[in-house]
Amino acid sequence: MTRILDELRRLVEAESKTNDLPAIVGCARVLSAVGTDILGSVPLSVSTPHGPVLQWRFGSGPARVGLIGHYDTVHPAGSLEHFPFRIDGDRVSGPGTFDMKAGLLTMLHAAGAVRDKDPGGLDGVLLHCGPDEEVGSPSSKALLQEAVDDGMRAALVYEGAAPGGAIYESRRGGLWLKVVLSGRDAHASRAYEGANALHALADYVGRILDLAAPDLGTTVTATEAAAGTAINTAPGLASLTVDIRSATMSEQLRVLEAMTSMESAVPGVMVHVSVIQQVPPLELTQSRPALESIREAVTLSGMQWPGVATGMGISDANHLSLMGVAVVDGMGPVGGEDHSPREWVSASNILDRINLSASCIGVLRKAFS
Ligand SMILES: [Zn+2]
Predict the structure, then answer these.
(1) Ligand 1 center to 219 CA (angstroms)
(2) What does the UniProt keyword field contain (predicted)?
(3) 134 C-alpha to center of ligand 1: Å?
(4) For the whole prediction, is pTM greater than 0.70?
């Protein structure tokens, strides 16, 4: 335990906010050293515009099983000054502890335990540590896709566990849209000479809210709006951003399709919808086969079933789901308050999660060889 906490301290004290390249490179160096020590081999370091992606590959055949993590955090350099690494009983706090440097150690030590038991026990396993997950993995996503093209069929993602230790079997996806309504300016006293985009916007917002399907987990939320230039001008231009969350890709596409084909209720106002960002959901259909293997591993080892949960946030598991990989998330330890200066992780739970993962790796290798 002392060893793991010392490694966690080294990783946390190597601050690594996404896009802070010197910091990211520094943390990659520490992670590489820590991982080499645990696994007995040096990672492949692939440089990307967001920093190095570190990968450990085992065996000569294709990697069928991926263990996936990221080492960037949302905490800017200097956060340690007011939020230092700290051990308080079972509670270990510091920037990036829960999201997800303790998860990285869970992954490395689980793999290390498998290898110690059987030198060939990791053949066909790939460990992947990305530098840019907190901004949607713009660079490392391509390397995940490459791994999938090379034969990766199942993956465990080591984000922190759901409350109580549950594993994420699904994560909602997100779609962010910009809507521009363009009509024609006119003096408000003779508004009939123009086409009022603000009136059209008010009506449009009312109608898109009906596209939500709360029973399916689909939400539609208007988030930003702008219109108007003067108190006595009927505006010819209005804009809106909309946040859409859904549990399935088909729901995401249904809302997108409905919004793009929806016409303005005000004659002369045109509606133009564009995608700002689109992240697929982690779908139950993609998590089920991996979850079955985990269930088998838990039964074989006599461990307690950790339970399953739905995640509201987004992770690499979302991308892997769309790539057709059998994937679950939340394999990291229990903790909380990530993305805040109170972020923490349970020290004792790290060992439990290492044991859980170590049992899962063998079963997954067999199921997805
Ligand atoms: Zn994370």
Answers:
(1) 23
(2) Hydrolase, Metal-binding, Zinc
(3) 6
(4) yes
